[in-house]
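stuck on this:

***
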Amino acid sequence: MFKKSGVLLYLFLVLLILSTFYTCPVVSSASSSVYIVPVKGEIDPGWGHFLERSLEEAEAVGAVAVVLEFDTPGGYIDTAQKAGELLSDFCAPIYAYVKPRALSAGAYLALCTDGIYMAPGAMIGAAEPRILGSEVTDEKLVSAWEAEMRGAAEKQGKDPRLAAAMVRREIEIEDLVSGEELLTLTAAQAESLGFSDGTVSDIYELLGIIGQEDAETVRLSPSGWEKLSGWLIKPAVATIILSLAFIFLILEVLTAGFGIAGLLSILCFGLYFGGHFFAGVSGWPAIFLFLLGIVLLLVEAFIPGFGIFGLGGLVSVFAAILLSAASAEAGLRMLFISIVVSIVAGYLAFKYFQRKGVLRRFILYEAATREEGYSSSADYSHLAGKRGKSITPLRPAGIAEIEGSRLDVVSEGTYIPAGVEIEVIKVEGRRIVVRSKQ
C-alpha cells in the first residue's frame, strides 16, 4: 500500500512540474475582443509556435483584431517567413505596434501586418541578413530577402525603396541614408515618410484609431515549454549543450561502469534534440538517426577493434546533429566547436584524474620489469643438480620438497614412491624433472 501511495505521489509531482511549463490560454467569450500578441526577444521557432497557437485561439473566439507588440532585435529568417504566411492567412485585421523596436526580421513581420503604429522614440529597420551574428551572407540570400521586404512593403502600400535600404547598405536615399549604412527609422521619420501609419503612446490609443476602443483586450504570453524550446535552440546555448554532452560521454568512458556522467550525457543530448524537435526545427528522421548511431556504437563496444559499426555510429550521430540544426552551416559550426571543446576538456579531465589517482583504480600504470626482479614465470634453473625428497608418489607427476620448498615435479618416466630421496636432473621453464637416488 505504501509503495502504491509513493508511486501516485511521484506521478502527482511530475504532473505538477510539467504544468508549470504550460500557460493556459485565456479564452474570451466576447465577440469584440482584440488579442495582443507580444513579439519580444528573438524571433525563433519557439516563438513561431506561440504565434500559431495565438492566432488559432483568436480565430476560434472570433477576435475582431490582433495587435503584435514589437520589442525584438530580429531572429530567424525562415521563422519570420512562416509567421508572415500565418499573418496573411488570418481572417481579421492584424496591426503592428512597435515599442520600442522592430529590427531585422521584426521589420519584415511589421510589414506583413495591415498597419504599422509606433510609440514615440521607437525604431524600425536594420534588416541585413546574417548567420550566427557573422558578416553578411551570400548575395543569393541577400537578394531573396530584399525581394521579401520589398514585396511586404508594396502589399502594405509602403515605399519599397525604404524596405530595400534596410537590407542593403549600398542603397542611398538622399537626406536619409548614405550608401554605407543600413536604414533604421525612428517613429517620427517613419511617420513623415509614410512608412508608419501613426505614432501612438500606448495600445489603447491605437485601438481608438482602428475603431476598437470599446473592445476587450486579451494579452497572451508564451507557455513555459515554448520559451524553453526557443531558448534551447539558440546557437550559443545549443553549442554549450552539445559540448557538455560530449564531455560527459568522455568522462563516462574514462570511469568504470555506468554512472552520473552517462546520465548527464543522455540528458544533454535529450535537451539538444528535444528542444529542436519541439520547436519544429527538426523531425523524427534526426531522432531516428541519433538512436541508430547509439545502437551502432553499442554494438561496436562488444566487437574488438574499431570497424564499420563504430564508423557508422559516429556518422549517424553527427548527421542527426546537423539535421536538427536550424541550417547546415549553423550545424557544422556548432558540431565543430563542441567537438574541439570536448576533446580539450576530456584531455584536461584525463590529466586531472591521472594526477589525483582516480584512474589508478581502473588502469595499471606500474610495469613489472626483469631489472626490478620481476619475471613472467618463476625461474627454477638454479635447482638443477639439487637434491630433495618426494612428498607424494610421482606417477610421474607429484610434489617434492627441494631446499625447503614444496614444488610440482615430474619423474624422468619411472614411478617414485613417497619419501624417496630425489635429484633434479633437468629444468625446462616451470617443468622440474627429477630421478630417484636410491
Summary: The two ends are 82 Å apart (CA to CA). Residues 1-30, 359-365 have pLDDT under 50 and may be disordered.
